[in-house]
Design brief:
The chain has 309 residues and is an alpha+beta fold. The chain has six helices and 17 strands. The radius of gyration is 20 Å and the shape is globular.
Length: 309
């Protein structure tokens, strides 16, 4: 039996609570809140009126009309301030609950563990008890993001520690990207493959930015998607503005790096929004400090699964 855990996960939690909470969220977010219940979570995004992603999250209903939204902690106050003009018209409140919960990642090949509810293997399902909620995350490994108002050590003290960055690496391969203050309003949902990730509903009613997002889906021609780039061994990370080197002389802007992690062999794993045409090359060269860096490109598992279905 192999069980490991990490506290190196997303760390922000926004609570939206009240009689109108569901109605309010349904008119603001890209995912279909009416599909939520206490056994299911959803990825989603909050867009500007221009359809640009201002933030993304994973949301579930902890109790009736009581929703919790996981996101980078720095985004919680931003969401509260950005939505304040709209929430004033609804009977609900938004509060920062980040400090009230312990959040950790769990990876296990067993679904029956002491102190845990029976763990569901269905992606985005929520397994709950009075003490803890466990959200099944996507990816090739069996892993859950867990929340408790008790100390995380009560649950993970006897488990091995997950290798540093392992949780983030698995997020990257599954297509989970986090928007924060460094890249708000830079991308359309399609640029991040959010529709493929299940974070955008095209059957729900209106929400902020919906017209732009729907037009891109049905009438547009998306130019970018989310991709994983693996580099050869190198010392420094590449500039977030990705430039392809063609025939060792011509430079061409191809996209934007969103997350970069250096691996044990000094290669880099990059999650990036890149031009869709780049995928046909599989291997290409990036320009970095006047050097040529050999790279391999692929798409996250969720994008592959969506394209194959």
């Amino acid at each position: 039996m192999t069980i490991s855990a990490t506290t190196n996960t997303v760390n922000g939690l926004l609570r939206v609570q009240g009689n109108d909470a569901r109605k309010f969220l349904q008119g603001q977010l890209t995912c279909d809140i009416d599909q939520l219940d206490q056994l299911k979570s959803l990825p989603g995004a909050y867009c500007s009126p221009q359809g640009r992603v201002r933030g993304n999250f994973i949301i579930f209903e902890q109790a009736q009309d009581n929703f919790l939204m996981l996101m980078p902690k720095i985004q919680v106050i931003f969401f509260i301030e950005a939505m304040a003009p709209y929430v004033a018209f609804f009977q609900c409140t938004m509060t920062d609950s980040s400090d009230n919960w312990q959040i950790f990642g769990l990876q296990s090949d067993e679904v029956s563990l002491n102190n845990f509810p029976p763990l569901s293997q269905t992606t985005w399902s929520v397994s709950s008890s009075e003490k803890i909620h466990c959200i099944k995350f996507p990816g090739s490994e069996s892993r859950w993001l867990c929340l408790s108002q008790q100390s995380s050590q009560k649950f993970i003290a006897d488990f091995s520690s997950m290798a540093i960055n392992e949780w983030q690496i698995q997020n990257m391969y599954s297509g989970l990207v986090w928007i924060d203050e460094t890249n708000r309003d830079n991308f359309l949902p399609h640029d991040l493959s959010l529709p493929n990730f299940g974070a955008v509903s095209f059957t729900k009613g209106c929400y902020t930015g919906q017209e732009i997002v729907a037009r891109m889906q049905y009438r547009g021609d998306p130019k970018y998607l989310l991709a994983i780039i693996s580099t050869e061994s190198m010392t420094n990370k590449i500039s977030d503005k990705l430039v392809q080197l063609i025939d060792n002389k011509e430079e061409k802007m191809i996209g934007t790096a969103i997350q970069q992690l250096q691996l044990d062999d000094n290669s880099w794993l990059i999650l990036a929004s890149v031009k869709r045409t780049l995928l046909s090359q599989q291997q290409f060269q990036l320009s970095s400090n006047e050097k040529s860096i050999l790279c391999i490109i692929t798409t996250p598992n969720t994008v592959k699964e969506s394209n194959e279905s």
